[in-house]
Design a protein that fits this description.
By secondary structure, the protein is of the alpha+beta class. It contains 21 helices and 34 strands. The chain has a six-stranded antiparallel sheet, sandwiched between helices. Strands 20, 21, 22, 23, 26 and 27 form a six-stranded mixed sheet that branches. Strands 2-1-5-4-3 form a five-stranded antiparallel sheet.
Length: 836
């Protein structure tokens, strides 16, 4: 049995766009009946409508479903079939499986199944609301019973649609079912609004035309952008499409309520040359010049022109010289590079050169002539000049070979510069080009020329900014044991330029790691350069182990100084007011499993633990560069295996949904099961992005690890010189437990110097700690003195002053970090296990 067409997004394995559910549930009940009146198909909607399981009805006469014993409805349908008609609609009395009677409107299409010789009838009806049982009529929708309607219901959508367009139109809900149609739509399909309401277009017009239009409706609901199609809505019989003369070109636009939420789609059918021209120009406004990519813009011009205006189109560009496009002399033979080509024929056989290749146009060719005269011209291929051209140029011969009879050549000019030429021809369409067609081609070409000119001006700057930005972002994340990390950086739409988003992962002392995500407002080289200066500053401040709130305070001062440096001669700063920077800085300690965070005007981080998913409550500090306002840090404990997500606001600021919906989508991606963090990143971006972002996006996801207790050893020390020997003994014993006896000698020296300095110059209480993770051994001594020790060079006869110098020579890294209660001096070694 052949099943009726399935709307896009409802086929198995095909992902449907996340659409707002309709306020009332509507399903389509579908059945098929062969030419002998036997039921051959029965779907879930039909089962819900009449209660019969497929096994109870398939293979049995359809007449048993009729409550009208006279069979009047069956005879009417048979009369339509005998008359050779392809469609029947009307109201029939159906018998429910429990014996009840149900009045239901049916729409029937006669069709021939794929690969079959016999015809069958496809029966459809829309079922709205709860399952219809005797006395419950699905066609009585709440709006028709006079109940008060909420904003955005079918009646209000119908008012908006009719107010916005005088053309033939219909309104479909977010479930792609018809809600309203005007009289023109009723005449076009020979069905009343009541007969079509609740059905999808593929049910009303089961034809490839209907399927194509419905697929474009779904695209409108996905991205909110209008759609146009060369498909024509059949004018009389929904099952036929005899050609352009039987219908009209169709446009589809999104309908939004006062809050900007998508509520439906308006289908509009245009007619007449003026309407078609307006539609083509509207489409060109949204499709030509979407990026700063020259080749893509040229291709967009040809894609818009074919097949609506021409059967073949090509764009050829002059080389850019001396920083100015089109500086080539336009006299004599002209050599240009083919940037784009499009044809109604597969493979573009009319073009003798491929995209990217160069071709030379003779001086007598229409292309050279139009560039010399600097105006567009119409040509008929029967003229003597074109005959001479065809004899000299293989390109012209190729056009004539494919039956080209009409030609237009239009120079691409923008801001006084000639960039190239666009060629349009017809061979499939028998009508020659008209002066109106030439005027339309000139308007389309002017749009493309302006975008190409802008691209040639801005591409070098954008390439420089992109190179600068890429060089400043970390290419390889550093090795560290505290966190498993994955990241994503998505540049904005090329028209927006390169932004100043950045991230970094910075290993700190004591096996800790810092995460930073920031955003410099604006785009271009200045934003990228500012980002680089700030990222360097963060790394410098992190190296001295500043707490997150103090680090942001120092960064705030830096942004203020940068703003002053960038002030205009009149004193008005272009930045911070003008620079405008947000930042989030976090430090995670795998020993204590605690994370300390502070933010400056940045979105809060997201946390997913084994038990919950939430936004971390980090005090919202002001953006950097305002000055005089404090930053506050917060500390939280994260269970091992928790996810911590840091991001820039480009991830959430979507034009097609509000901030709460954006957070919901982000968490949906975070909690979705995944084997790797890279997959988690992909899930988040897939859930939140419905189109290319308008702003740069940084996403940094970390999974927390914890050092087990047997990898950390600590001792409280008495402030007495005799304790030094005991600490050395404890450290040596611990190294033996960890299998690191090869590091014993160096470690004893480091321990002696660190502990001796703490007892001699520090304040009690004093604590010594050893941490071993992977191939790193860390020795730390903490006390309550805030005095920072300094390494100095002792004179020859000095008895002291060599301790820190010795530590610096023996350790791979060493330093001091301040804590709320004092300071910690630490030293790290790369060690090898005794088993290696």
């Amino acid at each position: 049995m052949e099943h009726p067409p399935t709307p896009p997004g409802e086929r198995p394995g095909e992902a449907a766009a996340p659409l707002e559910p309709p306020r009332t549930a509507t399903v389509t009940a579908t059945a098929t009946v062969d030419e002998h009146g036997i039921v051959t198909g029965w779907d879930e909607g039909a089962r819900r409508l009449l209660g019969y399981e497929p096994s109870q009805i398939i293979g049995r006469p359809a007449t048993r479903l009729l409550a009208d014993d006279t069979g009047e409805a069956a005879r009417r349908a048979a009369g339509h079939q005998a008359a050779g008609e392809d469609r029947w609609n009307g109201t029939v009395a159906l018998r429910h499986q429990d014996g009840g009677r149900l009045e239901q409107h049916l729409l029937a299409h006669r069709r021939t199944p794929t690969g079959g010789a016999a015809t069958e009838w496809l029966l459809l009806c829309a079922v709205t609301g709860p399952p219809p049982y005797p006395g419950n009529h699905p066609q009585d929708t709440p709006g028709e019973r006079g109940q008060e309607e909420e904003p955005g219901t079918p009646r209000e959508l119908k008012e908006w649609a009719f107010a916005q367009s005088p053309c033939i139109l219909a309104v479909f809900g977010t479930d792609l079912r018809l809600l309203a149609a005007n009289t023109g739509m009723e005449r076009a399909l020979s069905l009343t609004e009541a007969e079509m309401r609740g059905l999808r277009l593929v049910d009303i017009a089961p034809h490839p035309v209907g399927e194509e239009i419905q697929a474009r409706m779904r695209r409108v609901l996905q991205d909110g952008r209008p759609q146009w199609t060369e498909a024509f809505l059949p004018a009389a019989h929904a099952g036929r499409a005899d050609g352009p003369e039987s219908g009209r070109p169709v446009s589809l636009t999104a309908l939004r309520d006062g809050a900007g939420r998508l509520r439906g789609v308006c289908l509009t059918a245009y007619q007449g040359h003026a309407e078609r021209e307006r539609m083509l120009l509207n489409e060109a406004g949204t499709r030509i010049g979407t990026t700063l990519d020259i080749a893509r813009t040229a291709q967009e011009l040809t894609d818009v022109a074919v097949p609506r205006l021409a059967d073949f189109a090509a764009v050829d560009l002059l080389p850019a010289r001396g920083g100015e496009a089109g500086a080539t002399a336009l006299a004599g033979p002209i050599t240009m590079r083919r940037a784009a080509v499009r044809s109604v024929l597969e493979g573009n056989p009319e073009s003798p050169v491929a995209v990217g290749e160069s071709s030379t146009f003779p001086a007598l060719s229409p292309v050279a002539e139009c560039l010399g005269k600097d105006r567009g011209t119409l040509y008929e291929m029967t003229g003597p000049a074109l005959a001479r051209w065809a004899g000299e140029d293989p390109g012209a011969a190729r056009l004539r070979q494919w039956g080209t009879h009409s030609l237009m050549v239009v120079p691409l000019r923008a801001r006084g510069t000639t960039l190239g030429a666009a060629l349009f021809s017809r061979h499939h369409n028998p009508a020659p080009f008209t002066p109106q067609d030439l005027q339309l081609a000139e308007e389309l070409t002017a749009r493309a020329a302006l975008s190409i000119h802008n691209a040639r001006r801005h591409t070098p700057e954008r390439t420089t900014a992109m190179t600068l930005q890429r060089s400043l972002l970390p290419r390889v994340l550093p090795e560290q044991a505290a966190l498993e990390i994955a990241s994503r950086y998505l540049p904005a739409d090329p028209l927006a330029g390169v932004g100043g988003d950045w991230f970094d992962v910075i290993p700190l002392s004591g096996a800790r790691v810092a995460l930073v995500v920031g955003d410099v407002v604006g785009h271009g080289i200045r934003a990228s350069a500012t980002m680089g200066r700030l990222r360097t500053a963060v790394r410098t401040l992190a190296d001295v182990d500043l707490p997150p709130d103090e680090l942001l305070t120092h960064l705030d001062d830096l942004v203020i100084h940068l703003s002053a440096d960038e002030a205009t001669p009149e004193g008005a700063p272009e930045g911070a007011g003008g620079i405008g920077v947000t930042c989030l800085y976090a430090v995670y300690d795998p020993v204590t499993r605690r994370c300390t965070l502070a933010r400056a005007g940045h979105p809060p981080p997201a946390v997913v633990t084994p038990d919950a998913a939430y936004l971390l409550d980090v005090p919202a500090g002001p953006p950097l560069g305002l000055g005089g306002l404090p930053f506050e840090a917060t500390e939280t404990e994260l269970p091992e295996g928790s996810l911590l997500a840091l991001y820039t606001d480009g991830l959430l600021e979507r034009r097609d949904h509000d901030i709460d919906e954006a957070f919901d989508k982000m968490f949906a991606g975070l909690v979705r099961p995944a084997h790797t963090l890279d997959t988690v990143c992909d899930h988040v971006l897939t859930a939140t992005l419905t189109h290319r972002p308008d702003d740069d996006i940084v996403l940094l996801i970390a999974r927390t690890r914890a050092l087990s207790a047997d990898r950390v050893a600590a001792w409280d020390l008495q402030p007495h010189p005799a304790v030094v020997a005991r600490v050395r003994q404890n450290a040596t014993a611990q190294l033996s437990t960890w299998g690191l006896t090869q590091a014993g000698f160096i470690t004893e020296l480091i321990v002696s110097e660190l502990v001796t300095n703490a007892i001699r110059y520090g304040k009690p209480p004093v604590q010594f700690r050893m941490i071993h993770h992977n191939t790193t051994l860390i020795c730390e001594v903490s006390d309550t003195s805030s005095t920072t020790p300094h390494m100095r060079r002792a004179r020859f006869y000095d008895e002291g002053g060599r301790g820190l110098l010795l530590v610096a020579q023996l350790a791979d890294r060493w330093g001091t970090r301040h804590t709320p209660t004092g300071k910690t001096i630490w030293a790290e070694q790369n060690v090898t296990s005794d088993n290696e």
